[in-house]
Amino acid sequence: MEPLFALSRGPGFYFHPLKLGGVLAVYLIWVKVCWWVNRDCREHSLPGAVWNPSQLIGGLLGIAMVFTLPVFEIAFPVLLLLSLSPSLVYVVYRNPKVDDEQKVLTLRHFQRLLSGKSRAVDKGPGRFIPVRFIGKSGGGKDEDATRVRRAEESSGYRLAIEMVHDAIQKRATDIHMEPTQDEMTVRFRIDGILQPGTPMPRDQGDGVLNIFKVLADLDITEKRKAQDGSFSAEVQAIVETLGNKRRPKKKQNDDDDEPLGMTEEKPKMITRQIDFRVATAGSVIGEKLVMRILDRSKQVTDLAQLGMKLKLSDQIRGVVTQPHGLFIVCGPTGSGKSTTLCACLFQLDRNQKNIITVENPVEYHIDGVTQIEVNPKAGKTFASELRSILRQDPDVIYIGEVRDKETAEIACQAAQTGHMVFTTLHANDTVTAIGRLLELDVKPFVIASSLTAVLGQRLVRLLCPKCKVAYRPNPELLRRMNLPADKIKQFYRARREEERTAPCENCNDTGYRGRTGVFELLVINDRFRELIKADPSPEALKQEALKGGMIMLLQDGIRVVISGETSIDEIQRVAK
User: Do you find a cis peptide bond into 179, omega within 30 degrees of 0?
Assistant: First the structure.
């Protein structure tokens, strides 16, 4: 018998290089397929204990057949059949259990591979990460494949994907990358508080920062001047459906004697788009980057979602539906002012009203609303855009922020000429907001005749419902807050470090998860207008507001404390 793989040069056990190369190629493909099946089973909760051994046994049997069968032309097809058949059977088993976008070896799958648009990025070793970056071309909606390809070819691409995915999983609203001498510090803003992320070596950190600059179409050679841009990403997530909660089986017909049991539907996989606003700044140590995360799926469309009382939301709804006037939302940076005004826009009939916004940047896209983005480099400022949109016959105008005298005066003039104007202002409270307009040299009688209402707000963290601790409040504290000590039985607080018997995964041991708003609404009446014209002191304005029944931020915060949603420490932190 001729030895397997023998060359025609005499007796002996010689390996034919082409045949050996074919066997090695099948072996490497088999190893890759085994790795994919193992990972795919974990991702989709499929029985890996069944499929992993089947892949292993099939491959080992195939290799054994190569060295057992005397004819290579028979042994090689047997190797292919035994090593790859289990994976093909696995694909037939798993495809009906996943969404269409996740099915493999289908026409859609091959079309996606040929177009270069994979379902998610999985470069390098490690776990599968369901994130795919999208580079925007000139602020448009089309994907810029060139920019994405440039980013994917960079060595730090895997780190960038992992960091973004980690931030999204932790519900972060911002990512901070701050250089030091030896490393790049990473911090996530979660529920308004910066929390440390995983740092990286300085050279790797600079590479990751450059990847974000490429995606945002920024100049990677410029390290000193501030730059800003944006890009997007597609992120996949599993959402619970009715089937996840188990529902009763239905009988197929009346003759079906099988007892009713419980059945489950597969979890639904959705793809959502997340926008990123990138801002860089040069420092003495190196370039810093801050990236705002905007999840479109979490857009607030109802005032009740902001945490307002029903009475307050009705008051605001009455203000924003007026035919003309100026409505200001004030608060510090990150207090949710833009989110509140976007929710106000959803209270309007966008079919019957011409609504135009001027923003920097446009954070939430709203159907039926004309949204204009400010670009100072191109000469598009708030003031210049406001002059032009007044000729567009708007019913409602939303100005992203009043920053200077010119913008403030145009906003007031628009409110006086039959337009409803919404805007934000950086001020600590409602009374301070009026003082801020006066500081911008807007004439008092102009403010008095245009201003309709001012809403002050803060965001407070909600206590984690799984680990919050009840306690008896100090009677002296209750008296200072004008609360009846005999009626308040308990407050809640976050548990202290010494009280942690086990880690809380719900809040990551911070004691808080999620945020809600606390508010104060100042509605301008005739008496208040006369007071503004007289240019009084802030204290006089405050006293008049209290006489009119305004509930201050601290008072509204106490309401949230009494309900057990947050702690008194948290209210004192944001609304002293």
Answer: no
